[in-house]
Structure formats: structure tokens, C-alpha cells
Structure prediction request, 233 residues.
Amino acid sequence: KAGVTQTPRYLIKTRGQQVTLSCSPISGHRSVSWYQQTPGQGLQFLFEYFSETQRNKGNFPGRFSGRQFSNSRSEMNVSTLELGDSALYLCASSLELGSLNYNSPLHFGNGTRLTVT
Amino acid sequence: EDKVVQSPLSLVVHEGDTVTLNCSYEVTNFRSLLWYKQEKKAPTFLFMLTSSGIEKKSGRLSSILDKKELSSILNITATQTGDSAIYLCAGAFTNAGGTSYGKLTFGQGTILTVHP
Prediction:
């Protein structure tokens, strides 16, 4: 079974631009979450989608948005990029809403490394 | 606010040593605690703990949760160079309305380096 697939693997953008990151969950997984990882802040929750609806949102500005499609694939968008947005963006999927069921932990993709110059 | 703290932040050992990594949490409406191993990119799932006192084992790795002390430990016996990685602890919670959500609150991670 293929794992969580994220594209692209690397991105270089300049301040003020916008970017879209893509995530394909494990087949059969319906919940998709996004996390930002930086050396200073570690892994921080961005948002979670289930059945094409945002179910939970972290403490990030409105420049960060996302959506989920009917096939459970998800995209994340960051507008008006800032230098501080440089990070590894990780997508994770699980079978159901949340990671609280015993058999449904989050499984992470390899991430998209975003560099803002 | 939910908080997860790991210790130590870094650890250097030699092959064959046994290590214990610590995780404490202050997670509102705690539901479960998860351990992940991160080498290059994707954090890889290790254990998910929901019941206190029950040890989860996988080969040389084991973990146990203490709900009374709001903590968990991850043990690695007979360490190998391939165990070198960042070990992440994360807490999951249920909101006040009793709805399960997928937000994980991560600790800072413990950087484990195993020398030959």
C-alpha cells in the first residue's frame, strides 16, 4: 500500500508570492492533517480535513488555507509568503476523523520543503 | 493550553547501550499519546498509548504510559546506529464537546545519536 504522497518535494519562492502544496493520503484514509515543522517551533498543527470539511484549525494566520477533495486528496495554500514561512510542511492521513482510535494513528508523508527568499 | 515536554533534548550513546526517553504532557481532555521516529523526512509511527500501565513493545523498543503522572517513557535496548533519529512524543485530545479531533500536540523531540 502506497504511503502518503506529497508534491512537490522542494519549493523556492520569493516573499509576497503564493504557493500550493498537494497531498494524497493513503488509500482508504479519509482524514488529512497538515503540520508545519521548523527548527525553532518544532511540529505545529495547521488544520485537519475530513469529508471535504475543515474540522479543526491551529493558530496560524488566514494566509494559510486548505481544502480537501471528494477523493480525500488535499491541498494547502499559503498566500503573501513571508520569510518565516520557510519550513517543512508535512501532511498526515488517518482512517477516520482524528488520530484517537487505537488503529488509526496519523501516518506522515515526506513533506514539502518550502524556502522563501 | 496543551503542552508536551520531552527530555532530554539530545542524547549521545554508544551501540549496545539502553536509553530511556521521557515525555510529560498537559493535554486537556487527554485521549492518547503517540511516539514517532523522524530520520530524514517523514515521522514514522512507533506506538500509540491510551491506557495507563500497559506496555507496548516492538522489537527493541517499548513504551509505557502513566496517566497518573501524566507521562510516558520510550525505552530502546541494545541501541544500534540505525536508531539515530529524532524521537517525537505527541498528545491527542478530545474537545469539550466530546468530539474526536486529529490535532496532535508535539514535544520538541529528543535527538538521539548512537555512535558505533
Remarks:
- DSSP finds no helices and eleven strands in chain B.
- Residues 6 and 108 of chain B are 6 Å apart (CA to CA).
- The first strand of chain B starts at residue 3 and ends at 7.
- Chain B touches chain A at residues 31-32, 34, 36, 40-45, 48, 50, 88, 90, 92, 94, 100-109 (CB under 8 Å).
